[in-house]
TrEMBL record:
Location(s) in or outside the cell: Membrane
Range of residues in the leader sequence: 1-35
Family membership: Belongs to the MHC class II family.
This protein's encoding gene: HLA-DQA1
Protein name (record): Major histocompatibility complex, class II, DQ alpha 1
PANTHER family: HLA CLASS II HISTOCOMPATIBILITY ANTIGEN, DQ ALPHA 1 CHAIN (PTHR19944:SF59), MHC CLASS II-RELATED (PTHR19944)
Record-annotated membrane-spanning stretches: 234-252
Amino acid sequence: ITLRLRCCLGKKMILNKALMLGALALTTVMSPCGGEDIVADHVASCGVNLYQSYGPSGQYTHEFDGDEQFYVDLGRKETAWRWPELSKFGGFDPQGALRNLATVKYNLNIMTKRYNSTAATNEVPEVTVFSKSPVTLGQPNTLICLVDNIFPPVVNITWLSSGRSVTEGVSETSFLSKSDHSFIKISYLTFLPSADEIYDCRVEHWGLDEPLLKHWEPEIPAPMSELTETVVCALGLSVGLVGIVVGTVFIIQGLRSVGASRHQGPL
């Protein structure tokens, strides 16, 4: 069972009563942030509280325009900044987030006892793997495994390099909330591209019958064949010879024109 609370701030916002009071529902609870009642240039989700009985697990997240700023995990009990540089401009006491999660847990227990809950459908996640920047062999890069349409928010993402498990250079975001009540989670792998290494992002989720492997390998241009090289060289030589011939003709014509002018003399 999952319980989620969200509060939202933004510029040029028009808030209705439902948003001000908050909307609670069993399985997933969310105020209508991002709905038709809100007009905003920028939206900050300040304190997305997520708690679920499985585990149990929970997280408190701050987002800005859909990007995670920091989160507090129920297990780690500390503030984790998405980009460490952000911590230089502000701070957040994780105890406040833990108190919020304790309240959400308490409310979830009450609602579970009072209402006849129905298990939610396990959605099938969508997985995409791509590199952060164009790949050049031997140049450091980052692989990104984006797992979308996650519900419930319980997923295991791991990396494989040529079939071997990889743990070094791996990092991931918390669960990022979406307006349709599903979640996104992104895993990163820093690596050194080589022609011999291939990579897989392995995703385990209740919506999958078996772990999903999303394959990735560097796209290396095929080497030019000997015939192609010969044709290219021949074309280049032909173009060069034509240029020499045409240039010689123009030079001869120019010399003849100058000579003819000298023979005619002044009028």
